[in-house]
Write a structure and sequence with these properties.
Number of helices: 14
Strand content: under 5%
Number of domains: 1
Structural class: mainly alpha
Order of helices and strands: HHHHHHHHHHHHHH
């Protein structure tokens, strides 16, 4: 037990380093990960893509993964860029791939940091804490899809929380890759129409995901992901 404080501090080092790098990159690229920067450099991006499609796709996914891994502002702009450069398809594939890789890197860093230590503390904590942890563990798939499908849950929170709660690696990756598809598809399709938006000198409507015809289906999918939880509650209630 005497080594626990030192061990917990050493486990926190990856997260501290990640936060420091993220802060530095956010400051360094604060004027580059914006819609204005995309609009100003769109012709150069398109020309490079036309000459080097495969390389452009790889560079794009690597940059997107870095933005997500370091939780930098600009993920939405990156998604729009994916649609602008590669159209809705295969743009949505590149967007989902980049976001999933970035989210996985952040998940691993958080797990390597405090995730396992915090999970063990919850397992050995008070009875109430253990019950909360057990409830989450029993419904992990439903909860993971729920936080991905609800657009009001910040993306970095949905990446960090599972790591801190001891969610298995494979389960996190699968739920992330599938759960972000609806939102990614919406914003990728918006990005695919940026050519017209640029020509008009306008800005894209980023609030489109909150339009009823888009938001309601997303809420429906989120509610559907909770059906197993509700069925389990009903079964347990009847058993009593």
């Amino acid at each position: 037990m005497p080594h626990t404080p030192t061990k917990s501090r050493s486990h926190a080092l990856p997260l501290i380093a990640l936060a420091g790098v993220a802060f530095g990159l956010a400051f360094l690229f604060r004027d580059h990960l914006t819609f204005d920067a995309l609009a100003a450099n769109r012709d150069a991006f398109v020309a490079f893509r036309d000459q080097n499609f495969a390389l452009t796709a790889l560079i794009f996914m690597a940059i997107y993964a870095g933005i997500v891994a370091f939780s930098l502002p600009g993920a939405t702009v990156a998604t729009l860029t994916g649609g602008f450069l590669f159209s809705t398809f295969p743009g949505v594939v590149f967007n989902v791939a980049g976001a999933t890789v970035g989210a996985t890197l952040l998940f691993v860093a958080a797990r390597w940091g405090l995730g396992d230590w915090l999970s063990s503390k919850m397992d050995t904590g008070s009875e109430r804490i253990r019950k909360v942890k057990a409830g989450i563990d029993d419904n992990q798939w439903s909860m993971l899809f729920f936080i991905r499908l609800v657009p009001v849950v910040p993306f970095f929170v949905a990446n960090l929380l599972p790591a801190l709660l001891g969610v298995p690696f494979s389960r996190f990756v699968i739920s992330t890759a599938i759960g972000i598809i609806p939102g990614a598809l919406v914003y990728t399709s918006v990005g695919a129409g940026l050519g017209v938006v640029f020509a008009r000198g306008e800005v894209p409507d980023l609030g489109v995901i909150f339009e009823p015809h888009i938001l309601l289906p997303l809420i429906g999918l989120a509610a559907l992901s909770l059906v197993p939880v509700l069925l389990k509650v009903v079964r347990e209630g009847r058993a009593k």
